[in-house]
Amino acid sequence: MSNDALDALFSENLHIHTNLSRCGGRDSTLTAVVRQAEKLGLRRIAVTDHIHPYETPKLFHNLPLLRRELAALDTDVEVLLGAELSAYGVHKYTLQYANAAPKLDFYMYAHNHYHMRGWEQPEDQSAEGYKRHCLQVLKTVIRSGKADALAHPFADKYIVREFEDVLPFTKGCITDLFTDNEIGDLMELGKNRGVMWELNTTLFADYAGFLRRYYRTGLEVGARFFVGSDAHRPEAMDLTEAKKYFKENIFFQMRSERNADG
User: Fold this and answer.
1) What angle do CA 205, 108, 217 make, to 5 degrees?
2) Which of 53, 65, 160, 198 has its Cα between 20 and 30 A from that of 122?
3) pLDDT tens digit string along 28-75?
């Protein structure tokens, strides 16, 4: 990867929450997010507030107001008003039957929020069972044609956090079970459906080894990646340290591993 390609990848931040998400800080208004993007020199951002199962999203009630607020801002930043939607089971999606839902600019689906109310759990609640369930959900949401992008794919931190007191899980124990062939097959399917794959900066340190496999496999397949900070406050949108970490601990290490393999 050239420095220009790295700069282009990190010139966008397509996973940002505002105060319309429960996780978003009060100061995370659309205007504050856009102004922070300008300050950071970002070319394009996506506002991706949550749409969880069995909830009426604040986003839809406020979308016309957000569009007017955005239109009033004098900015060179390209802003997508999207959402982080839920693929909360096999063939189960938020907005699945909402034909009158307002049109979004960017549909990003999360498949692994197993800690959320109403999320489908696998019958086999072993690490292997969760892995197989994740593969099924990812395959069906990609094939559905609903997703422009996938949020923090393959990450098991939500499963571990929810069930650490009752199941023998540690961070990475499920994620590391995904084989290169399984990842590659899904990415090939995603490429044919125009689906992008997130490089979520909150995962870099804890999942660096997996992310090297994930990114290498995607490059081999020709998958499209995007960077997302999963920011809940405007100050968390800064990608400077994440870019440095990615270059040193994921990309360069990935290249070293590939050279060592011959």
Assistant:
1) 50
2) 198
3) 899 999 999 999 999 999 999 988 877 666 777 788 899 999 999 999
Structure tokens at 166: 């009752």
Check if the beta carbon of residue 75 is closer than 8 Å to that of residue 38.
Answer: yes
Which domains does the chain carry? 3-260 (3.20.20.140)
**Strand ranges, E, within 18-157:** 44-51, 78-89, 92-93, 106-110, 149-151
The residue whose two tokens read 């011959």 is: 262
Locus of tokens 């909830």: 55
The pLDDT tens digits of the residues spanning 133-184 come to 999 999 999 999 999 999 999 999 988 877 777 778 889 999 999 999 999 9
- Burial class of residue 3 (count of CB atoms within 10 Å of its CB; 0-12, 13-18, 19+): exposed
